[in-house]
Amino acid sequence: MSDIEELMVSLDLDAALARVYRRHGELVRRAVKRRRGVIGGCVAGVAAAVLIIVPIATRGGPGRKAPAPALAGRPGPTTTSSDPNAEPLVPVGFVQSVDGAILTLTSTTPPLHDASSAPGVAASSTATERARIVSSSHGPVLRSVTVHFNCFRLPEKIHEVSYVLTPDALVVSASISYIPDGSACPSPNDGPVITLPLTAPLPVGTPVVAGSVLSH
Amino acid sequence: MMVHMGLNGGRTPAGFEDVFRELYPRAVGLAYRMLGSRAAAEDVASETFARALQRWERLDPDRVAGWILRVTANQAIDVMRRKGRHLEPAVISLEDSTTLRLALAEAMAKLPRRQREAIALRFLSDMSEADTANALGVSPGSVKTHVHRGLATLRDELGDANLEAVNV
C-alpha cells in the first residue's frame, strides 16, 4: 500500500465532515456580511414578508385619560397628551410628509438596485393576511407605532412606511424592495424595525392593523 | 431540493454526505500529491467541499466528482502560489520528494487552465480519460490533446525522470 493509499484509508471522515460544515458556516456568514455592506447596514441582515405592528404608548400620570377619539378621516384625534407640543421623531433616513389623513415617511436614499425582477417576488403583492399585531399598549395614549418586519429575504431598501386613520383603525402599510438574488436572511426574528411618529396622539385601545406590504 | 438532517444538526442537501464520503479521500490524496503535507491536503479538501456545499443545488450530479477534484487541484496550486516559493531548476532533485512536488505545482501553475485540470484529473487523481472528459465537459479527444500539450510543457520544465517520479 502506498503512502497516499494509507493516508486515504486513515482519514477520520466524521471529523472531516464536521470541519466542512464549520467552514461552510463561515462562508455563509461572510457572504451575508458582504451583502449587509452592500445595503448600507440600515436594513441589514433581514427581509420582510410579514408586517408586525406594535403600538407604543407614552407614560402618563395616573388618572389621566385621553378623550374619546374622533377617528373618521383624520390623522388623529384632537386630544391632549402628556406633552402636546412634542415633535414626533422622524426615523433617520426618512422624510415625513402629511397629506390630509395620510402621514408618509419616504426614504431619502435611492434604491441600490431595481429589484422588480427578483425571483419569487411579485411586482406588487400584498401581504395583509400575513400581518398581525403582537402587543398592545398600556399607557394612556399612543404617540407612535413601531413596525417590525419579519425576516424572509434580504431587503434592499424600505421605500416607504405610512399609516392612515380610518373610522375603524389605524392602518399601517409599507413598501419594500429585495436584493435581486433572493438571498435568505439569517434569522426569522431579525427583521428591520421602523417607528412611525403619529401626527397626534391616539387613545389607547385604538385598533392598529397592518395594511399592505408592497414588494418591488 | 431534497434535504435531510445531517451531522451538522441542520438541513443538509440530499446526497452531499454520500458524495463527501466517496470523494473526500480522493481529494485529500490529490492535494497530498501536490502539497506533500497531510494537514495542508485536508485543509484544501475541506475548503473544496465547503464551497461545493455552498453551491450544491447548482452542481451537475453527473459532474460533481470532476468539479470537486478540479477545484481541489486548483486550490492546491493556489496554496503553493500563496506560499510564494520558487525553485530554481538546479534544486529539483529526484531524491527530494518535497522539492519535486513544489516544482510540479509550480510548473502546473504555468499551464493553461484546461491543460492543468486535465493533467490533475487524469494523473494526480487517476481518473479515466472518459471520466476526465465528462468532468471537464469536453470530448475525450480534447482531453488527449490537453494532456499531450500539458505533459510536453511539464517535461520541458521538469525533465522526464522527475515527471515519472511524481507519478505523472
Description of the structure:
Helices cover 15% and strands 32% of the residues of chain A. Chain A folds into 2 domains: 1-38; 46-215, no CATH class. Chain A has helices spanning 3-9, 13-38, and strands at residues 51-58, 94-99, 102-107, 132-133, 141-149, 155-165, 170-178, 193-203, 208-215. Chain A has 216 residues and is α+β, with helices and mostly antiparallel strands. In chain A, the strands form 2 sheets. Chain A has a 5-stranded mixed β-sheet with strand order 2-3-6-7-9, with no helix packed on it. A 4-stranded mixed β-sheet of chain A has the order 4-1-5-8, with no helix packed on it. In chain A, strand 2 (94-99) and strand 3 (102-107) form a beta hairpin. Chain A contains 2 helices and 9 strands. By secondary structure, chain B is mainly α. Chain B has helices spanning 16-35, 38-54, 64-83, 97-110, 113-124, 129-136, 140-158, 160-165, and strands at 3-5, 11-13. The radius of gyration of chain B is 17 Å and the shape is globular. In chain B, helix 3 packs across helix 5, helix 4 (97-110) packs across helix 7 (140-158) and helix 6 packs across helix 7 (140-158). A two-stranded antiparallel sheet of chain B has the order 1-2. Chain B has a single domain, classed as Butyryl-CoA Dehydrogenase, subunit A, domain 3, CATH 1.20.140. Mean pLDDT of chain B is 78; it is low at 1-10 and 86-95. Chains A and B meet through helix 1 and helix 2 of A and helix 1 and helix 2 of B.
